[in-house]
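Long-time lurker, first post. I've been practising inverse folding by hand and with some scripts of my own, and I keep getting stuck on stretches where the structure tokens seem ambiguous. Below is the full token string for one chain I'm working on. Before anyone asks, I'm not after the true native sequence, just a reasonable design that respects the backbone. If someone could post their per-position residues I'd love to compare against what I wrote down in my notebook.
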């Protein structure tokens, strides 16, 4: 179990869901892990990581988290910009407020930008590495339940990742957008809080179930490791077939 031997990975949003499962898997695969979250206590509770409290929507926090990674472990080789929010009041164009739009973009888009702004120079110093930005299947499809700010923010993450992949490819820096389908994590289940709402979503997923954060962590491991050495600029879908089902003509 050493697919990430000698690697130093920084994971944002590591206090819960995908980020936490990825921190545990990366540790098991031999990486040194810097676990970052808005909720410092949540990452401090993960044994074996270097925990950092930070708000990814703040430039100074992102600069500090990268500096801490290099100070603690001597380098940074994997940057997993995974922190994201889905606001309870995110809705359609008419009902979404400017405040909800701005907060969603501050975390989901500016947070990824700052992670890259400060992470890329560190990856360069290390001689290269892998950046994984968590987008979503909605970046490709949109969502049938209105959540306009979230959907638009994930589209931005996807297009930003593609451009970064092209710009930094010759520096031995790979950049991929990881696009999970609907998962059984806190972020989604707080909305799908009745059996009826769950079933309405499950009908569209060919596999007939929600994904697990652990299954996304395994995809992040692939994208972080040398196993994906020729993979960059992708919209790496891990979605139980939902995108294929939507895009297949009836
Ligand atoms: P989660 O809510 O379980 O975890 C997100 C973590 O990010 C939390 O620990 C939270 O404290 C942290 N966070 C929020 N704002 C932050 C900030 N400003 N700075 C630092 N940390 C912050 O959610 P998850 O399901 O694990 O989602 C992780 C990523 O996956 C998100 O980008 C999300 O949009 C994306 N995603 C989730 C699903 C899903 O169905 N759950 C599907 C597709 C994409």
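-- Answer (accepted) --
I ran through it position by position. Result:
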């Amino acid at each position: 179990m050493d697919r990430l031997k000698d690697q130093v990975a920084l994971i944002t949003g590591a206090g819960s869901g995908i980020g936490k499962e990825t921190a545990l898997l990366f540790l098991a695969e031999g990486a040194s892990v810097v676990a970052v979250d808005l909720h410092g206590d949540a990452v401090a509770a993960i044994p074996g990581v270097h925990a950092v409290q930070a708000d990814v929507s703040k430039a100074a926090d992102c600069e500090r988290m990268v500096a801490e990674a290099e100070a603690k472990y001597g380098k940074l080789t994997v940057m997993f910009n995974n922190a994201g929010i889905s606001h309870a009041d995110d809705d359609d164009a008419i009902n979404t407020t400017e405040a909800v739009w701005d907060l969603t973009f501050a975390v989901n888009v500016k947070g990824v930008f700052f992670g890259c702004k400060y992470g890329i120079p560190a990856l360069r110093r290390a001689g290269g590495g892998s950046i994984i930005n968590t987008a979503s299947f909605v970046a490709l499809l949109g969502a049938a339940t209105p959540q306009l700010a979230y959907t638009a923010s994930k589209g931005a993450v996807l297009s930003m990742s593609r451009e970064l992949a092209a710009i930094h490819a010759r520096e031995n820096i790979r950049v991929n957008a990881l696009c999970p389908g609907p998962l059984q994590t806190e972020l989604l289940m707080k909305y799908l809080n009745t059996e009826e709402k769950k079933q309405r979503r499950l009908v569209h997923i060919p596999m007939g179930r929600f994904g697990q954060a652990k299954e996304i962590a395994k995809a992040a491991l692939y994208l972080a490791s040398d196993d994906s050495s020729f993979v960059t600029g992708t919209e790496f879908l891990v979605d139980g077939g939902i995108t294929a089902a939507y895009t297949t003509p009836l």
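A couple of notes from the structure itself: The first strand starts at residue 8 and ends at 12. The two ends are 44 Å apart (CA to CA). Happy to go over any region you disagree with.
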